[in-house]
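Reading group handout, session on sequence-to-structure problems. Before we discuss, look at one worked example. The prompt was deliberately terse, the way you'd type it at a terminal:

> structure Protein Abitram

The input record follows.
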Amino acid sequence: VNILLMDCVEQTDTEATAPSVIDRYYTRWFRADMKGKPCEDHCILQHSNRLCVITLAETHPILQDGRAIKSINYQISNGCSRLNNKVSGKGGQFLTDFAPLCRITCTDETEYTIYSCIRGRLLEVNESILETPTLLLEKPSTEGYIAVILPKFEESKSITENLLSREEFESVVSKRTVAQSQPS
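And the output record:
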């Protein structure tokens, strides 16, 4: 009985210190103040196979102050819905790094546009967040992701040139915090 119990304890300790799947297989990149809008930060999870998962950075206003989501809309304009993206043969819609992916409206009527952040083909949008918007709030890096984009092979190394590493992003956020605490 003691041996079994020890096994369980050791296993629990291992699980507590093991890196998450995200930390193990993805590199986190960031875009701060997207399109000049303060704190509208995006996170790009880049897998070793080039796939990039677009998520909200933990500092994004949607994830602050206990906000609730009223709606998520992948209809970008009258002629463009990311839900109509067809991936076959050569792949889905080609996106520039400032292409809007969706619009998220909070219950306080504040609307945020989420952008692709990188150039590449849109492989999928997360339809699960349409049915369960709380996934975006509760699990933004996993089940609450926005979209998956595949950069062109020849651009897969250069797409991160305009993005911030975790250390650079944390520096931006800490300067922001200092600036906000200064009396005006």
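Points for discussion. First: The chain has one domain: 25-77+91-166. Second: The CA atoms of residues 22 and 41 lie 18 Å apart.
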